[in-house]
Structure formats: structure tokens, C-alpha cells
């Protein structure tokens, strides 16, 4: 059964709203996910310090917005590290479905932090600069810091991109599909935040450059506002994705169909009449199925056979718990429309 569930995940494909077989695709993403977050933390911490110094020297609104952005990202990485650690604890009596959903809670905290410490501060400072403009200076320092920041943020983004591309290749999807549909919130958060960081650096550069060329602080202030709007959009998207998984994000029909087919191919199962799969954490699934066992066994033997199949299913590292019940003779076999997708 372990191989059957694994193969089912291998064959599933996500669509616009589903997750496909990312549970299998991200099999080894635990350690790699922590590495991705640590690299992002170190990069953001160094960048935040450099931007803060540059903002104090130059008085640039865009640089101040970027400093707020980087400090927000640095704090967010701490939340994401907590998410990785807490969500991987084994289930116990107090939490029979495990602690997987902790990842979505702490990732949502990080998204709220990005919205408040990043977006709100950047927009507020930009508006303040429009109302009470201040002269800028030492543009060379600003450009140098932006260049260094772009390199450091690029290194962090490269790690997140590498992890997402690897997952996408294993699932047969694009990198962006992998990021948008994955049940791993830390990968999605780091990828989105690093993407926003690189775009924000370009906006800050343009704002400072136009400030230098025109002598007007307005482009610089507008750059700060645009950075804030960008962070706000990213934060809202991340909050929404975490909300979906907290309230019960459905798996794709492609994954559901594949798992049903593999269950039906089990030596002890004649047919499947009902199947429910639910994400209970990053790459963790809860499985409930109604099956008709092979043969006509005594009640005692049926109970033993059901428990044996359940334990067999739970050997797969992505199945948190499997619960099987017997089908009644009048229940139809579970079928799927050809080419059904989530």
C-alpha cells in the first residue's frame, strides 16, 4: 500500500485551485525548507541593516520603505522557522491529527507582519514625504546599498526558486504552479517575499534615480508608496492561502482519483465506494474511505483485515491517519469523470 499511495501521488496533476500530488513531490522538502528560510533570514538581516544606514544618510523615502520591508521580512523568517519546527511534531493524544496546521497559523502571523511592518509603514512614509518633502543626498551610497541588497536577495530567491522548481519537476508542473498550489506555506512565503523584495529594489532604484535627475522628492515618495502597495498585495495573497488550508483546502480530483484507483488495486480491497482526503498540514493527508473487501469473511476477520490495511496505508510518510469502513452492497463504486480536475 505504501507504494500504491506513493504512485497515486506521482500521477496526480494540479489545476488552478488544487494541489495535485505535492505531498509526494516535496518528500524531502523538510530539511530543504528550513535551509531556505535560514538563508532568507540571514540575507534579509544583512540587507535590513545596510538599508537602514543608507536611509538615515540619504533621507530617501524609497530607501526607508525598503528598510522597513527588509526588517519585516527578517521578522517573518523567525515566524516561518517556528512554523517549520512546530508543524513537524508527532501527533499525540491532545492532537490526534498532529500539529501540521501550526504551519499555517505561524505563516499567517508572518503575512500579517509583512502587511503591517512592511506595507503600512512604507505607504505612510511615502505619503508623509509627499506632504512634507525633505531634500535627499548621497545618492551613491543608496545605489551601492541597493546593488548589494539585490545580490543578497537574489541568493535567497535562488534557493527558494530551486526548491520550488524541484517540486514542480517531480510533479510535472511549472515552478509558479508549484508555489501557488503547494500545501507548504513556508516555501510559498519565502518565494513570494523574495520576489517582492527584488521588485521593490527596482522600484526604489527608479524612485531614487528620478529624484536625483529631477531634483524633486515626489518620485522617491511615490516609489515608497508603490513598494508598500506591492507588499500589501503579497501579504493579502499569503493570508488568503493560509486561510484556505486552515479551513480545509480540498485536494484535487486528480489526486483523489489516483488514490482511489490504487486503493482498489490493493490485494484485500475489491472496490472503493467513498474516499475523503484532507490536508492536515504541509504535505500531510488525512484519509477516510469506504471499501468492500475481497471475499465474504467473518466479522472478526473483517475487522482485522481493515485494521491491517489502515496500518499499511499509514506507512506512507504523508498519510497522517487512515480510517476505513465497510461499504454496503447497494453503494455504487466510486467513479470519476474522464479528465476531471480540481
TrEMBL record:
The alphabetized UniProt keywords are: Membrane, Transmembrane, Transmembrane helix, Transport
Gene3D superfamilies from the entry? Cation efflux protein transmembrane domain (1.20.1510.10)
Q: What membrane topology does the UniProt entry give?
A: Multi-pass membrane protein
Localization recorded for this chain is: Membrane
Superkingdom as given in the UniProt entry? Bacteria
Residues forming the Cation efflux protein transmembrane domain are 37-239
InterPro entries recorded: Cation_efflux (IPR002524), Cation_efflux_TM (IPR058533), Cation_efflux_TMD_sf (IPR027469), SLC30A9 (IPR040177)
- SUPFAM superfamilies found in the cross-reference section: Cation efflux protein transmembrane domain-like
Q: What is its main location?
A: membrane
The annotated region (Disordered) lies at 1-28
Keyword Membrane applies: yes
Protein name in UniProt = Cation diffusion facilitator family transporter
Query: What organism is the protein native to?
Result: Arthrobacter burdickii
Name the lineage: Bacteria, Bacillati, Actinomycetota, Actinomycetes, Micrococcales
Amino acid at each position: 500500500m505504501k507504494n500504491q499511495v506513493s504512485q497515486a501521488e506521482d500521477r496526480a496533476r494540479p489545476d488552478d485551485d488544487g494541489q495535485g500530488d505535492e505531498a509526494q513531490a516535496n518528500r524531502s522538502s523538510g530539511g530543504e525548507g528550513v535551509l531556505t528560510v535560514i538563508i532568507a533570514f540571514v540575507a534579509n538581516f544583512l540587507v535590513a541593516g545596510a538599508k537602514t544606514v543608507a536611509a538615515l544618510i540619504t533621507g530617501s523615502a524609497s530607501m526607508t520603505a525598503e528598510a522597513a520591508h527588509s526588517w519585516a521580512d527578517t521578522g517573518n523568517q523567525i515566524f516561518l522557522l517556528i512554523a517549520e519546527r512546530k508543524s513537524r511534531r508527532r501527533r499525540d493524544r491532545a492532537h490526534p491529527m498532529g500539529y501540521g496546521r501550526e504551519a499555517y497559523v505561524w505563516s499567517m502571523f508572518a503575512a500579517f507582519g509583512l502587511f503591517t511592518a512592511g506595507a503600512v509603514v512604507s505607504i505612510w512614509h511615502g505619503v508623509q514625504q509627499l506632504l512634507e518633502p525633505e531634500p535627499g543626498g548621497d545618492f551613491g551610497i543608496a545605489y551601492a546599498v541597493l546593488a548589494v541588497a539585490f545580490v543578497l536577495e537574489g541568493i535567497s530567491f535562488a534557493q527558494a526558486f530551486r526548491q520550488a522548481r524541484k517540486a514542480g519537476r517531480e510533479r510535472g508542473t511549472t515552478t509558479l504552479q508549484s508555489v501557488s498550489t503547494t500545501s507548504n506555506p513556508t516555501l510559498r512565503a519565502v518565494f513570494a517575499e523574495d520576489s517582492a523584495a527584488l521588485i521593490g529594489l527596482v522600484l526604489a532604484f527608479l524612485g531614487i534615480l528620478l529624484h536625483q535627475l529631477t531634483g524633486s522628492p515626489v518620485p522617491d515618495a511615490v516609489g515608497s508608496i508603490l513598494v508598500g502597495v506591492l507588499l500589501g498585495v503579497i501579504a493579502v495573497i499569503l493570508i488568503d492561502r493560509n486561510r484556505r488550508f486552515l479551513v480545509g483546502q480540498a485536494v484535487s480530483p486528480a489526486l483523489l482519483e489516483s488514490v482511489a484507483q490504487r486503493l482498489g488495486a490493493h490485494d484485500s480491497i475489491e472496490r472503493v465506494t467513498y474516499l475523503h482526503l484532507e490536508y492536515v498540514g504541509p504535505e500531510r493527508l488525512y484519509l477516510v474511505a469506504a471499501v468492500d473487501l475481497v471475499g465474504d469473511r467473518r466479522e472478526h476477520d473483517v475487522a482485522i483485515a481493515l485494521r491491517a490495511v489502515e496500518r499499511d496505508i499509514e506507512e506512507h510518510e504523508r498519510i497522517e491517519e487512515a480510517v476505513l469502513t465497510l461499504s454496503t452492497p447497494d453503494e455504487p463504486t466510486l467513479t470519476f469523470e474522464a479528465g476531471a480536475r480540481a
